């Protein structure tokens, strides 16, 4: 499912216009992104937690040449599913 399909499904189920639903979906994504940029966790009880994790620098290999390269340390987004989501997907 992509973002447009999500907006359409929510619109049909809620009776709201697609434009209103898209505004809310974009707002949620923007707020989660802002919180993660600020180093905060975003937790939806039962659904899951969005957070950032530190990835240390490491040595990798260029697949075309086989030459070793240094991959720098990075902060990456992560999602940990909650128990209710895990049970629903089982």
TrEMBL record:
Entry keywords, A to Z: DNA condensation, DNA-binding
GO biological process: chromosome condensation; DNA replication initiation; gene expression
SUPFAM superfamilies: IHF-like DNA-binding proteins
Domain of life: Bacteria
Any one GO CC term of the record: DnaA-HU complex
A GO molecular-function descriptor: identical protein binding
InterPro entries reported in the protein's UniProt record: Hist_DNA-bd, Histone-like_DNA-bd_CS, IHF-like_DNA-bd_dom_sf
Family: Belongs to the bacterial histone-like protein family.
The protein's name: DNA-binding protein
Phylogenetic placement of the source organism: Bacteria, Bacillati, Bacillota, Bacilli, Bacillales
């Amino acid at each position: 499912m992509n973002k447009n399909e999500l907006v359409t499904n929510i619109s049909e189920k809620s009776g709201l216009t697609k434009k209103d639903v898209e505004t809310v979906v974009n707002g949620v994504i923007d707020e989660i992104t802002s919180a993660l940029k600020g180093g905060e966790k975003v937790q939806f009880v039962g659904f899951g937690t969005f957070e950032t994790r530190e990835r240390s620098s490491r040595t990798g290999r260029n697949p075309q040449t086989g030459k070793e390269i240094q991959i720098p340390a990075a902060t990456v987004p992560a999602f940990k599913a909650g128990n209710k989501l895990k049970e629903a997907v089982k």
